[in-house]
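Standup notes
- DV: blocked on the single-chain target, sequence here:
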Amino acid sequence: MQELYEGIDLTPEQSEWIVRGLLDLAAVDGIHEAERALISDFHAGEGGAESLEALAAKGFDAQAAAAVFQNGGARVVEAFVVSCYLLIYADGQHSDAERARVAEYGVALGLDHGALEELHVKARLYVLQSLAHLLWNRDTVKEIGASMGLTEDHINRALEK
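- DV (later): unblocked, structure below
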């Protein structure tokens, strides 16, 4: 996930709000070990010193986060939302409640349904490209992509990379 933030100079405040948002999202259906690991890796990579528990206790306010993210520009907003979508796939299940929470974040960030769907596709392509590097069977990768709701064109582009 760290590569989503390449070329973006996050402030410590932006990094903290990203972690708090991811923790809030993960808590929607109970934090899974894989979700915690993903959040922990990002937090450590950004030099976070506070414990995840302390950050979770601060809570997450999407409106306040939006103001902080907007200062970093569209790339910070995009990276946060894509990270949210990646997080909901981390435990192998993506629930309606998780998708609804990401939609709430999107509203606070000023994103319409089309923009959110575009970022959701970007996240699914990221997952599929990661799997394509691990799996030699292209048919399996295509089946996984289709099960994620990706179009054949999206899947083929993911396999080309």
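- Follow-up: The chain has two domains: 1-111, 113-161.
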